[in-house]
Amino acid sequence: MKKSGKKYTASAKLVDKPSYALSDAMPVVKKAAFAKFDETVEIAMRLGVDPKHADQMVRGTVVLPHGLGKSKRVVVIASGDKVREAREAGADEVGGDDLVQKIQGGYMEFDAVVATPDMMKSVGRLGKVLGPHGLMPNPKTGTVTLDVAKAVKEVKAGKVEFRVDKTGIIHCAVGKASFEADKLAENANALIQSVLKAKPATAKGKYVKSIVVSSTMGPGVAIDLASVEAA
Predict the structure, then answer these.
(1) How many CA atoms lie within 13 A of 109 on its CB side?
(2) Are 149 and 89 in contact (CB under 8 A)?
(3) DSSP string, 127-173
(4) CB 184 within 8 A of CB 30
(5) Which of 28, 64, 168, 225 is buried deepest, with most CB atoms within 10 A?
(6) 142-198 pLDDT, tens digit each
(7) What is the pLDDT of residues 115-150, one digit of tens each?
(8) Is the Cβ–Cβ distance between 113 and 137 less than 8 Å?
(9) How many Å apart are CA 57 and CA 70, to the nearest integer?
(10) Is the pTM of this model over 0.70?
(11) CA-CA distance, 186 to 22, in Å (whole number)?
(12) Three-state SS for 56?
């Protein structure tokens, strides 16, 4: 979609440097957000990896220190005592095969799914439903676990998942334009540091090629890589 118009042109003029330190970029991103709604602030990191090779897949999770500006709805698919643990931890809905059937029937009013290992045989039936939305529970992201209470609390606290796409780019939200600039910078830095730590051993050459921060409708603001790689 081509972004044009007087408002976009005016906000693009606010980006007056080739690149910015992360802490200096966020005030610019906030100022350049011109929509009438509270825009999401997102990071795009272009990595020097080839996602077609399994050993160069970059994925993981990070708890953003200031969350994403909304409480996520979490459902837990579990059995036995884990049902009570999930409810006490604040899960929005908990169930077993009954919840699996409900999701198969079209129920999708949630942002994250946590499951216990013993329920994964049933959860496997939801692959075609949850997979396209990136909601399938996975041990690598901590959403298949016996510690359901910890998983629920982390998601509620602002845990986000990042994953490199087929073009070698990670897209991830780090907050809202209404956040204070320093909180956006802290969230963004937490994500960037997690991606740096997730560098595959097989990745050759420059790992992070570029980082751009933008709001939903606003222009991209390039980040000086030296300012974050040294953090």
Answers:
(1) 5
(2) yes
(3) HHHHGGGT----GGGT-B-S-HHHHHHHHHHTEEEEE--TTSEEEEE
(4) yes
(5) 64
(6) 899 999 999 999 888 888 889 899 999 999 999 999 999 999 999 999 999 999 999
(7) 999 999 999 999 999 988 889 999 988 899 999 999
(8) yes
(9) 29
(10) yes
(11) 9
(12) helix
Question: What are the b/e assignments for 76-109, b being 16+ CB within 10 Å?
Answer: bbbeeebbebbbebebbbbbbeebbeebeeeeee
Specify the residue for token string 């390039």: 222
CA dihedral 175, 46, 135, 104 (to 10 degrees): 120
Comparing CA positions, the residue from 7, 8, 5 lying closest to residue 220 is 8
Residue 122 tokens read as: 């049933």
| Alpha-carbon span 29 to 33, nearest angstrom | 6
Residue type, 13: K
Instruction: Tokens for 133, please give them.
Output: 């939305």
Q: Which helix (H) or strand (E) holds 88?
A: helix 81-88
